[in-house]
Amino acid sequence: MDGAYFADPGGQRVVVGIDRHPHVGPLARSASTQVHARLCGSCGFVELYANQPAELYEAYCNAGRATEPRA
């Protein structure tokens, strides 16, 4: 089933992020995006997907972390 989502008890949706400048420290600007879920109605297995994965990958590459091409 597509379109499922995770939310904290306050109703906020789950976000995944990556630091754009990891060596600067915790105050460095980060890139983030909400995630959506796919859920198996039979066994309950859940997968999470980033809504804007290209933005996260770009931040990852610009931070000098990428060593391999994107799959």
Overview of this structure, please?
Strands 1, 2, 3 and 4 form a four-stranded antiparallel β-sheet that branches. This protein has one helix at 53-62; strands at residues 2-4, 15-19, 30-39, 46-50. A hairpin with a 6-residue loop joins strand 3 and strand 4. The chain has one domain (2-62). The model has no long low-confidence stretch (mean pLDDT 77). It is α+β, with helices and mostly antiparallel strands and 71 residues long.
Give a quick account of the main beta sheet: strands, pairing sense, barrel closure: 4 strands, antiparallel
User: Helicity, in percent?
Assistant: 10-25%
Rounded average pLDDT: 77
Number of domains: 1
Radius of gyration: 15 Å
Output the structural class: alpha+beta
DSSP strand tally: 4
Number of H- or I-type helical stretches: 1
The coarse overall form would be elongated
SSE ordering: EEEEH
Report strand %: 25-35%
Low-confidence stretches: none
Distance between the termini: 24 Å
Short summary:
Helix content is 14%, strand content 32%. The protein is an alpha+beta fold and 71 residues long.
List the helices and strands and how they pair.
Elements: E1 2-4, E2 15-19, E3 30-39, E4 46-50, H1 53-62
Antiparallel strand pairs: 1-3, 2-3, 3-4
Describe this protein with a few key phrases.
71 residues, alpha+beta, four-stranded antiparallel beta sheet, 4 strands, 14% helix
